[in-house]
Fold this protein.
Amino acid sequence: MRSEVGMFKSRLGLRLSVILGAVLALLLAGGLTWLDHNERQSMAEQAEQSTEQTALALEASLKSIMLAGEGPIAHDWLKRVRQTTDFDDVRIYRRDG
């Protein structure tokens, strides 16, 4: 009788250990996935904010050049910006087409 009880306790302990280990592994995997997702989202938001700030700075510098009436300088500015920034495309549009 004692050996049967001992085997049952041993098997129960093993089962509980395996179940607990599996649950902890799933929780760890879920937590790491959640952290990775949040970090990627945060990095994307930060990149978007940085791009927006750069675009606003470029807009302000172009506006000051244009308000000063320096059209040729604006074209030189546009060439430099196209060479130095990470934007795919930089264009200047006229209001009157």
Summary: The first helix runs from residue 2 to 67. Residues 2-84 form one domain.
